[in-house]
Design brief:
The complex is a heterodimer of chains A (about 350) and B (about 550). Helix content of chain A is about 25%, strand content about 35%. Chain A is α+β, with helices and mostly antiparallel strands and about 350 residues long. Chain B folds into two domains: about 240 residues, MetI-like fold; about 280 residues, Orthogonal Bundle (MetI-like fold). Classes of the chains: A alpha+beta (about 350), B mainly alpha (about 550). Chain A: Keywords: ATP-binding, Nucleotide-binding, Transport.
């Protein structure tokens, strides 16, 4: 049985449909990322799970027990869902000390005084803030506030913790450390975590399961490798990674392979027609294109345009049959004709 | 908060608002007092007041003229002063700015006494001027003087809205105009002020509306020449026909509300528009004051002259008069200084009670009122429901009721309702009337601090397991505590200053300084009036000092 199940969830704000029927299942102990652009409905979905938004159709079950079920008219208020929630702004109560912020959930659960002190201390130690219990949130740095928010959400040991872009308020360096730290903390506790982000690199780094949303619908759900290497739709393949999206003529589709025409040159690729998007797009990740020495199988002649120096490598821009192709390489390139190789298993044809 | 509790609070508030108004409307269609069984339904009171009563027509026209006139004075002056004090490098602007708001905190009836004592036919300044030029070059009891004084004392209302709008305007728009070659006053007229038009429009409607509600100034300054306005007409009506004519009074009240309610409604719409306007360009970063060069000195002169005329002259004359044993032409000041009036004041038990009651109703009553406003606000907080919209409109009703009218309606309600009758001559009736009159104001004070709480702070409480009531108690209330204390101080000053609400509720046990002043003025006891006014001013000063201290503490 999945830890958390979402069934045909619909939600609207006034006349605007925000969630248009979401189905998803999250396994116990896994870290799930809800990934999507702003307005895709990912935060709304997270808030619906917490009971902070009210859907109008569908169901949400935790351990098979409905916390929301439109059919059975079940809608538990947030305080009875027993979840942990980490807000994007952290939402630490400015009038309570760090200790009191964390202790509040335990007090509401009628714990004894000694018990509360012990568990809050454990929880703060767990996030590396054991010595700061007497401070007020305004006396902490952004990274420390985030840790307090996580400690507050975990202290009463909820079976599921929800995190709404918890890293977006940290600077770039801190964010990369926090990714690893949060993932190992959650894994150590063995709880289920649902994580909202618009940053695909963050999703790939933290998640066991990535759920890609667009326009209030689920696009694809799978492991980070699934999403990055086997995107199901044109949207998914363009959303993940950095890509060359080329307009191509499809000459032939056969046995899961497709032959395309680009400016008079023939290339083989993987047939990824999903029926939904209009045909005639070839997608290849920047890092998959290779600079080749001469003509050959699945190679294109290209005219050099310009280069950008990125530090660890170069990004070269070429013109190919009237379209721009970007290539990553650790070699310099100069003006003149070049050959680009697109490996057939990494060129996805829609 | 549970839904049922929210609805109960809304219903109770609705009852508190609608019962007095409903009673007045009901009374306006009766032939006699509502408590007389022989009264029958009729519209004869309307026919009499609207078509036969010349005084009413005159009062109505006067109100309209005075409201329009004072608006024409207050709005331009308020805008200019806001621009000068907020956007330019005027010398001493930090010092002057808080002083501009002082007339808002002084009861207008006290200010009116001050003008009489200073500028009346035997006023302190008048006598001095006469000694200088042989005659008094002005006449205080004319309609023109009334309009000018009303206009000048309402400058702060315009200033308040115009200055806060100007503050949220980025100075880049002005600098752009300066660098295209516009002088400072051209910048004000063509850039800054047009950009805050919605706020100015709002303040215009507000001042016009306050003009219709005017009571203290025309009561004191209009009386000698029998210049009646709507509120003073209502007040005189009590005695005009010998017996209190409930039906006629009710009709006058209904007419006033019918004028003010649309104005209040327009204001509400304008405020929403103004807020939208500000939000669009709420970029208040790095405001640099505009250098206005040599214009600084005439500008300071203008503001100081206004301040001197509207605050310093009347207030100091009033205070001085309260320490003078007598005053008239040829009376010297120094030999006549005395504390006798204050000693006399202490000899009247009702006056002493008035001072004690004022303090009680302002401090304890004010705290209870803020508690009530907070309760209503919490009941409506983050509640998307038709009830909230209903409440939004209900709050407009007490706003449309000047204090005099609300006091009258409350007085009748306590006469009419058997359960309330025993409380009629207690401070409770007065407190209820005060709370009702300042409902919209108090609600806005409290909601301003509620609006500053991010919704996620309360959501975080819910998620960790707190019920709505626990969130209110453990998160919301502690967070608005400072805001509530600030609101209480403002309400304290407001209640100390209030004079019209208590006029009809005045009875042994419910005296307050404001209503005592109104009734004492009628008897011509100038010595007592000035002494009591001085006491009132001191109490207000205490409130303002408290506000200042709290403000400083919050900054620290």
């Amino acid at each position: 049985m999945p830890k958390l199940a979402i069934e045909d969830l619909h939600l609207r704000y006034g006349a605007v449909e925000v969630l248009k029927g979401i189905d998803a299942q999250f396994e116990e102990g896994s870290v799930v990322c809800l990934l999507g652009r702003s307005g895709s409905g990912k935060t709304t979905l997270l808030r619906s799970i917490a009971g902070l938004e009210e859907p109008y159709r569908g169901a949400i079950r935790i351990d098979g027990r409905p916390v929301y079920d439109a059919g059975a008219k079940v809608n538990l208020p947030p305080e009875r869902r027993d979840l942990g929630f980490v807000f994007q702004s952290y939402a630490l109560w400015p009038h309570k000390t760090v200790f009191e912020n964390v202790a509040y959930g335990l007090r509401l659960r009628g714990q004894g005084k000694a018990d509360i002190t012990r568990r809050v201390q454990e929880s703060l130690d767990g996030v590396g803030l054991g010595a700061l219990g007497a401070r007020y949130p305004s006396q902490l740095s952004g990274g420390q506030q985030q840790r307090v928010a996580i400690a507050r959400a975990l202290v009463y040991e909820p079976p599921v913790i929800l995190l709404d872009e918890p890293l977006s308020n940290l600077d770039a360096k801190l964010r990369e450390e926090a990714r690893i730290w949060i993932r190992s903390l959650i894994k150590r506790r063995g709880i289920t975590a649902v994580f909202v982000t618009h940053d695909q690199a963050e999703a790939l780094a933290i998640a066991d399961q990535v759920v890609l949303l667009d326009g209030g619908k689920l696009v694809q759900s799978g492991t980070p490798e699934d999403l990055y290497e086997r995107p199901a739709t044109l949207f998914a393949s363009e959303f993940m990674g950095t890509n060359n999206t080329l307009s191509v003529g499809v000459a032939e589709r056969r046995d899961g392979r497709a032959l395309v025409d680009l400016g008079g040159h023939r290339l083989w690729g993987v047939d990824r027609a999903d029926g939904g998007t209009p045909a005639g797009k070839g997608v290849i990740r920047l890092e998959a294109v290779r600079l080749a020495e001469g003509a050959g199988e699945n190679r294109l002649p290209a005219e050099y345009e310009t280069s950008i120096y990125l530090g660890n490598q170069f990004e070269h821009l070429f013109r190919c049959g009237g379209q721009t192709v970007r290539v990553l390489s650790d070699r310099r390139a100069g003006p003149g004709p070049h050959w680009l190789e697109c490996p057939p298993d990494r060129l996805w044809v829609f | 908060m549970p839904r049922s509790f929210r609805i109960a609070v809304v219903l109770a508030t609705a009852l508190m608002i609608l019962a007095p108004v409903g009673l007045v409307v009901y009374q306006s269609f009766l032939s006699g007092p509502f408590f007389q069984p022989s009264s029958t339904f009729t519209t004869q009171a309307y026919a009499f007041v609207l078509f036969e009563e010349d005084d009413f027509r005159e009062a109505f026209v006067n109100s309209a003229i005075i409201a329009a006139g004072m608006t024409a004075i207050a709005v331009p002056l308020g805008c200019i002063m806001a621009f000068l004090l907020v956007r330019t490098d005027l010398p001493g602007r930090r010092l002057i700015e808080p002083l501009v708001l002082v007339p808002m905190f002084v009861s207008s009836v006290v200010l009116a006494f001050g003008f009489v004592v200073a500028l009346g036919p035997v006023g302190i300044v008048s006598v001095w001027a006469k000694g200088l030029v042989g005659t008094i070059p002005w006449y205080l009891y004319s309609k023109t003087a009334l309009i000018v004084i009303a206009g000048l004392t309402h400058v702060p209302h315009v200033f308040l809205y115009a200055s806060s709008a100007l503050r949220s305007l980025g100075s880049d728009v002005e600098e752009a105009a300066r660098s295209s070659g516009a002088g400072p006053f051209r910048v004000a007229l063509t850039v800054s002020l047009p950009m805050i038009m919605p706020s100015i429009l709002y303040a215009t409607v507000l001042v016009f509306f306050l003009g219709f509600e005017l009571f203290g100034l025309p009561l004191v300054l209009g009386d000698p020449e029998r210049i009646l306005v709507l509120a003073t007409y209502l007040y005189k009506l009590t005695n005009k026909l010998g017996t209190p004519s409930y039906d006629l009074m009710a009709v006058v009240v209904v007419s006033i509300i019918l004028v003010t309610l649309p104005l209040v409604y327009t204001q509400r719409k304008l405020l929403a528009a103004a807020n939208r306007y500000v939000a669009v360009k709420g970029k208040a970063s790095a405001q640099r004051p505009l250098a206005i060069g040599a214009w600084r000195w005439p500008a300071v002169g203008l503001i100081v002259a206004w301040l001197g005329f509207t605050v310093v002259i009347p207030v100091s004359a009033l205070v001085l008069r309260s320490f003078l044993s007598t005053w008239g032409e040829g009376v010297a000041i120094w030999p006549n200084l005395t504390l006798a009036h204050f000693r006399e004041l202490m000899g009247y038990p009702n006056l002493v009670r008035g001072i004690v009651n004022t303090l009680l109703i302002a401090s304890v009553g004010g705290a209870l009122s803020v508690g009530f406003y907070a309760l209503v606000n919490l009941a409506l907080h983050r509640w998307r429901s038709r009830w909230t919209a209903l409440m939004d409109y209900l709050v407009l009703v007490p706003r449309a009721m000047p204090g005099l009218i609300a006091g009258l309606a409350m007085f009748w309600l306590f006469l009419f309702t058997p359960v309330l009758q025993p409380f009629r001559q207690t401070l409770f009736s007065l407190w209820l009337a005060y709370t009702l009159v300042w409902l919209a104001y108090g609600m806005r004070l409290v909601s301003a601090s509620l609006l500053q709480i991010g919704p996620e702070l309360e959501e975080a409480g819910r998620v960790v397991g707190a019920r709505p009531a626990q969130v209110s108690r453990d998160v919301t209330l502690p967070l608005i505590k400072a805001g509530l204390v600030g609101s209480w101080v403002l309400i304290f000053v407001t209640f100390v200053r209030e004079y019209s609400t208590g006029v009809y509720l005045l009875s042994p046990g419910t005296e307050v300084i404001g209503s005592l002043l109104v009734s004492l003025w009628g008897t011509g006891a100038v010595d007592l009036v000035t002494a009591l006014s001085t006491v009132n001013l001191v109490l207000i000063l205490v409130g303002l000092a408290l506000m200042f201290a709290l403000g400083n503490k919050r900054h620290a």
